[in-house]
């Protein structure tokens, strides 16, 4: 017997890619359970599937930075005493990425690259130990939202957030809808899809001096003049990130979706003062904010 649950959850996270750098992503999770019927004549109660499996996925992937631990560009140093991890992603050509964050900010995927297949295998191993004995098989299907209009991948951190959004490197795959003078404007949507393709959106007040960061000895020996150094303290600890300027965009506010929507609307107003703009900015799948200028 098979039990299926579509749209179990959406995982919002970022990952390190040798070609694209730090990539914000949103994947929808569908699940199939194989097994015999239990004493309730069920494979597993739908409520338990939604509660237990979603909790495990949220704990191990959602709002984390996924690191391809077997990739030769990746160097990882664990500080077990302080529960912190240093990560260097040595892409070369001034595009390296460096982090020093609490251990919970990462998920280490033992593969050469982050893909739906490697993440699915990682999650299957995590979930398998928590399933009842009558469940003998688990299939996880990861997929992207079908978006037939412009979208972008962005990474950010929200230092004021009480939950996991405070992690400095998590992200989303998000569409954007722009209206100019009450008419849909696909060209303006494409502007953001191009400007924020695989981007880190940083808040200016989180910029720090490079020499104040506790980076790895490898990072300290490198010329990082073409990088932005970010750091902040939040309830989960201190987060530090050094990322190429060429793959970043700076704003003067926090990078909540509300602030991003307003930033986008204000940018269009700045470029075309005589027009009126409405921006619907999404944060992953099915949620977001609307701003006007």
Number of beta-strand segments = 17
Q: Termini distance? A: 55 Å
Radius of gyration over C-alpha positions, nearest whole angstrom: 20 Å
Question: How helical, in percent, are the residues?
Answer: 10-25%
Beta-sheet strand percentage?
35-45%
Query: Number of DSSP helices?
Result: 5
Work out the count of structural domains.
1
Which regions have little confidence, pLDDT < 50, spanning 5+ residues?
Answer: none
CATH homology group: 6-pyruvoyl tetrahydropterin synthase/QueD
Principal-axis shape equals globular
CATH architecture: 2-Layer Sandwich
Q: What is the typical, i.e. mean, pLDDT?
A: 93
In the CATH hierarchy, the third-tier topology is known as Tetrahydropterin Synthase, Chain A
| SSE order, one letter for each helix or strand | EEHEEEEEHEEEEHEHEEEHEE
Instruction: Return the structural class.
Output: alpha+beta
Q: Identify the quaternary structure here.
A: single chain
Task: Write up what this structure looks like.
With 293 residues, this protein is an alpha+beta fold. The chain has five helices and 17 strands. The chain has helices at residues 46-60, 116-128, 186-195, 217-220, 257-271, and strands at residues 2-17, 21-35, 65-68, 74-79, 84-89, 97-102, 106-109, 135-143, 151-156, 170-180, 183-184, 199-203, 227-234, 237-244, 248-251, 277-282, 288-292. Strands 9, 10, 11, 12, 15, 16 and 17 form a seven-stranded mixed beta sheet that branches. Strands 7-3-1-2-8 form a five-stranded mixed beta sheet. The longest helix is centred in the N-terminal third of the chain and has 15 residues, at 46-60. The N and C termini lie far apart (55 Å).
